[in-house]
Amino acid sequence: MAEDLSPREREEVLEFLYQCLMEKRIFVFSTTPQFGRKCLEKNPGGMVITGHYSVSERKLARVAAKYVGGCGAGRAYCALQPDGVITPCVFMPIASGNIIEQSFSQIWKESVELKDLGDRTLYGGHCENCDYRLVCGGCRVRTYAYFKDYLAPDPGCKFN
Prior knowledge:
Layout: H1 7-23, H2 34-42, E1 48-49, E2 55-56, H3 59-68, E3 79-80, E4 85-87, E5 97-98, H4 104-110, H5 112-118, H6 126-129, H7 140-147
């Protein structure tokens, strides 16, 4: 997709964001799952981003990143559209249910898409066996945009 960054360009942006974080020029949060990976690559014992939630230098943050880090679409969050439709992410146009017809709890527990996205062992390509799968996992929306498959490997990642 011409509008998307190449994996090389993405790495350059991640490097810039990492340097800003380390220099404490700005407090950096990024919705890109690869930022958690970049932090661990640069300094395995240092600062880590736990997805959309926090940044910390402590060991517990690295443990937490394995549970809440990376792409949270359908795993840690979902989106509620104005018409009651639940989608795995505000950017992912897949209806996983409708709160007008079902309870949110039922949708969260029974939606095939949300179950699939919650199981990071189902991710394909390099994402399937990547050492950073739990803190990154790739962007599931990007995989869907490119391949119409939210479990495909993330084409924005330098490893894919």
